[in-house]
Amino acid sequence: MDWNQHFKYDNGNLVRLRANNQHKHVGWINSSGYLQCEVGGVAFMLHRIIYEMHFGEIPKGLQIDHIDRNPLNNKIENLRLATQNENQINSRVPKNNTTGYKGVLTTPSGKFQARLGYNGKKLYLGLFETAEEAAECVAEHTRRLYGEFTPS
To answer: Could you give the 3-state DSSP secondary structure of residue 127?
Structure first.
């Protein structure tokens, strides 16, 4: 779809083009925390529209990653192509996480297990005495495997 027929990009926002010259920002926050809007009765995510307005169609199998992990920051310099794995690596710590670290679980023995997803598989990285040691192990492997997608 040619998004430029419907919208103008405005510093991370979209403005709907109207015949009467009354332009306004579009979008609402969906249940996942992302901005979306409707075109022809179909809902679309704003970050995907903005990316396509600047770079063309998103290749099949790729997603749009928010570099700063803020789903409401749709400035073009904050958006990049990513595989599903890369996008998940650059995500927040889940709310139900009890250790405070991504990829670190508490075992029944009280030790901390480090693990990391890669190419659709879970990599077991080891057991550690502290959550911090396990988190450092996960961070080291994440940097090596995912490079620029590793959260800072």
So the answer is: strand
